[in-house]
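Example record

Each entry pairs one chain with its bound ligand, 26Q.
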Amino acid sequence: MSRTIPLRTLASYEAADAIKRDLRFHLKYTLGRLPEQATPRELLHALSLAVRRPVMEAFLDTEWRQRGAKRVAYLSMEFLMGRALENNLLNLGLREAAGEALTEFGTELDTLCAREQDPALGNGGLGRLAACFLDSLATLDLPATGYGINYEYGLFRQEIRNGEQREHPDPWLDASVPCLIERPEEAVLVPVYGRIVEDVDARGEYNPMWLGWRLIVGVPHDFLVVGFGGSTVNPLRLFSARSSDDFDMRIFNSGDYILAMQEKIATETISKVLYPADDIPAGRELRLVQEYFLVACAVRDILRRFRDTGAALDQFPAKIAVQLNDTHPALAVAELMRVFIDEEGLDWERAWELTRGAVAYTNHTLLSEALEKWPVSLLEHVLPRHLQLIYEINRRFLAEVDARWPGDDARRYRMSLVEEGEPKQVRMAHLAIVGSHSVNGVARLHSDLVKTQLVPDLHDMWPERFNNKTNGITQRRWLLQANPALAQLLTRVVGTRWLTHLEHLRRIERLADDPGFQDDFTAVKRHNKERLARVIADTTGVLVDPSSLFDVQIKRIHEYKRQLLNVMHVLHLYRSIIDDDVTLPGPRTCIFSGKAAPGYALAKRIIHLIHAVADLVNHDPRVRGQLKVVFLPDYRVSLAEQIVPAADLSEQISTAGKEASGTGNMKLALNGALTIATLDGANVEIQDEVGPDNIFIFGLTVAEVEARRRRQDYDPRQLYTEDAALRRVVDAIADDSLCPRRPGAFSEIAARLLVGDEYFHMADFHSYVTTQDHAANEFRRHRSWTRKAILNVARMGKFSSDRTILEYADEIWGLTPVK
Ligand code: 26Q
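Structure tokens for the complex follow.
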């Protein structure tokens, strides 16, 4: 007879009691409710407040311990944190205790946690990476502050109406957010606009004055990031833009009340909304002001902290590492120079040494259209002094280029920070690279392409600056929190060490063929698929079969990510069933989720197309349940947490050379999905880790894509003519049968495929279909599939963001843990 093991320690009973006590306290004295009358929303609020006690204790203790230690400032326009409460409970080891404390309120912890709104202060991969990094930094006891903007409106909410995306505002601050602590005492002042008056100082040295600026107040709000184990709690410092009362009073006093109010509103607009595009940078003045606002607030906060330590200014790079999450905060280079020169009175060489010594830059994209450039005229209008400094940085830089390659005007032209043309623009990636001591890509392949394709001239000049840091994800959120059933199974077999040492999961390799373990693993997957099937039924009304192959593509909608190739495959399966009487190896459920940038018309068309195909396939009785297509609206972190654990097949099918890394690929594989992928981004390294037998690779390689582009002989129409299956699919998109009431709705999509097909859908179609067919057959060999899935989980150790962060800390930041 097996005896139940007493899992709960005395400490956990005490913890439950403490939470219960604080929960009652906050219900009564913060929210004014008797426990019996509390609504679920109030309970959630009170529980979040109760959890603040241990969080604050650890935070204050962390600040004390970290004083004087070197710190990284992680500057990012986006942080996609996801829900905080459950994550904090798990990292504090209080999840059980909180569940226990809630029993007397007749509520389940899960239901309560599910009511929390996602803070969606990011678009996608880049923002979520920043959030995983903060989790790892705190878990590894590394001193770090995240710096970002406290957008009043996060990424828009997506609604689907008649198959099309509609955007709605996401006023996440409407509900009181107990995870944010306002710090009005630490507000900073930021000047923008105005003009430069040339002048000389008492010693006769050039001393320009920046006059007539408008003043913005940056009010910090700390979002506390609890590391696993709860000993280190680091701040994510988010700034809200407020107008300066002192400043506005001058206008109020001059009698123009309306003008004063207008100025106030304009200022507060700066932190109003996150730009919802992650492709073509909107060259909008408001975005530039947002970027500068972040940089200026962060730099002031960094320097205030630095001065508090009493260290001399030449210690700056020894005490501070500034990491730029893409070029969005690249103005930090100019801002640091401005502060060092104009405010601290350093000479240029010294200021440059301190700046370059501290700053490092991460690149996240190779798409040339996605590289940030700002018109010189706009910079001059918004940041006149910074433009002067950028010109001086460029003058000195080009002098170095001339010295190294005399007379090579073409090179000089390519390398300049300023792109000649109409309009003249500043290349932010060049500014970031010239002003940094480290430049990294986010996967091995990507980092190589940064060197050879994106900025080969800069790499020629400073090869030692360039390095790779392959992305990672935190297993605490993406396995422990998202997939409790699998987490429990793994812990039963190998213990809890994987929570901080993901490579420890290697130990389940020996069980990959063990029938008992396989059955448990299968039961977990089944459980997660049933859970997702309920979500699908509730949100879309479509009933799906949990024993079908769950084929999942979840990410932003983009041409280069090729959701369209996936849809083409679905149409191919459908037509084969209907026209050719084909029977699939087994039923398949194709699951899509993702948002399109509101201004990206073609991406929105693709969402519409997915819905049209879903409508067709799901309602045709001839399909006999072999194929279902669903689109889950409003993709966000909390929805990903429900989809990822239930996936069998992970779609990572970007055109080779376009996806910098991808991180969804890692989340899905860690949760036991097999990957169907091109050799792009981190997929290459995932294959290295799991082995070629445990992943489905297809399609053109980077070299093959490049060869076709170079030869300029890619002819999608020829493929259309020669391949009957492909022709049938393209015709189905083109011929209006999918949109009888909206003739022509998809004709542009078909036209793109036939003319140009920039992302090589047509070229990869055949290889993709063949590989999908292979995957479907493999899925029916249940034992062998499960073995592969287990090996995927076992071999994801490299893709923990803990590993990534340790590399950044050792090789870029020179940071050591403070325990
Ligand atoms: C820039 C200027 C103006 C407005 C918007 C933007 C903007 C905003 C967001 C440009 C790009 C982004 C986001 C990019 C992004 O998410 N890139 C992804 O980064 C991930 C983390 O490194 C990678 O895994 C993905 O491959 C990459 O696409």
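Residues 40-66 form the longest helix (27 residues).
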